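lol forgot to send this yesterday, sorry. struct tokens for the thing we talked abt
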């Protein structure tokens, strides 16, 4: 379980994330929703030490994690795919996957089975792939490294609907083994079908946190989060 407490982050003197408390239990799939600019990406990037954090603490299964140290997050088995996919453009697909693979860990889902393209394009430089193909490489890298937690920003970006659904099924299999899965999405459609819980952000704060079970999509709560008035 990852506990994020009193989390405030941003850039220079600008607070983009303001006092977020969030608990992510093992074995749960959680989606973070919200309009563009509300702080979803900054939340993930700052938790993984990729942008400044002003205050807050992290605990993994009760043990404090050092803030601002991405290598410590990786060593703890937490992986993050940023919205730019996080691939090494000059390396081949196979080299990208080899670098991501966590030593001593074999995920219960094989990304090569999930995305056949990874085998077909194994010797191709990742930078020459299309956006959707890079997305497959990025998700595969996150699966190979995320023994404890997998966080993916803009999960469905560039993915064909059939591939997005297959990937979500695979992530559900991983969650069933105790892995925490955290997804940032623009639309509630896929999270409502596959996730256990939806967290909504507005102006840098968590303003909505509800299990999917029993959540009425027509209630207006999600629309208020996602539609600019």
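and heres what i got for the seq, position by position
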């Amino acid at each position: 379980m990852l506990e994020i407490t009193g989390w405030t982050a941003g850039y220079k003197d600008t607070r983009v994330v303001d006092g977020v408390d969030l608990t992510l239990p093992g074995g749960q799939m959680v989606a973070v929703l919200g309009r563009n600019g509300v702080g979803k990406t900054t939340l993930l990037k700052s938790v993984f030490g990729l942008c400044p954090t002003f205050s807050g603490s992290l605990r993994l299964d009760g043990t404090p994690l050092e803030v601002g140290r991405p290598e410590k997050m990786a060593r703890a088995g937490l992986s993050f795919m940023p919205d730019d996919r996080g691939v090494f453009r000059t390396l081949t697909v196979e080299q990208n996957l080899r670098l991501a693979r966590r030593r001593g860990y074999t995920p219960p889902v094989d990304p090569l089975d999930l995305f056949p393209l990874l085998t077909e394009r194994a010797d191709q430089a990742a930078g020459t792939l299309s956006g959707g193909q890079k997305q497959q490489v990025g998700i595969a890298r996150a699966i190979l490294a995320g023994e404890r937690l997998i966080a993916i920003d803009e999960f469905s970006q560039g993915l064909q609907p059939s591939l997005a659904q297959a990937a979500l099924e695979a992530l559900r299999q991983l969650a069933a083994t105790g892995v925490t899965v955290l997804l940032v999405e623009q639309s509630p459609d896929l999270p409502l079908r596959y996730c256990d819980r939806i967290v909504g952000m507005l102006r840098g704060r968590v303003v909505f946190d509800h299990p999917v079970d029993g959540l009425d999509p027509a209630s207006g709560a999600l629309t208020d989060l996602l539609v600019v008035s």
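The chain has a mean pLDDT of 93. anyway ping me if u want another try
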